[in-house]
UniProtKB/TrEMBL annotation:
Name this polypeptide is given: Retrovirus-related Pol polyprotein from transposon TNT 1-94
Top-rank taxon, per record: Eukaryota
Domain Reverse transcriptase Ty1/copia-type as annotated: residue spans: 12-58
Naturally occurring in which organism (per UniProt): Trifolium medium
Length: 59
């Protein structure tokens, strides 16, 4: 997971900003995957951070 975070930081994928007053942030979670070679051995582990958009409340 640290490798993925470092790669995202290095490529300026996001910018950390302050949350506006009276705004509730959307939750998030880590999703993990094992990438395998064609013959089945593990190539590498992948991780991505996804937003839980289904929890959003309009307004």
């Amino acid at each position: 997971m640290q490798v993925e975070l470092s790669a995202l930081e290095k490529t300026d994928t996001w910018k950390l900003v302050d949350l506006p007053p009276r705004v509730k942030p959307i939750g998030c979670r880590w999703v993990y995957k094992i990438k395998r070679h064609a013959y089945g051995s593990i190539e590498r582990f992948k991780a991505r951070l996804v937003a839980k958009g289904y929890n959003q409340v309009e307004g």
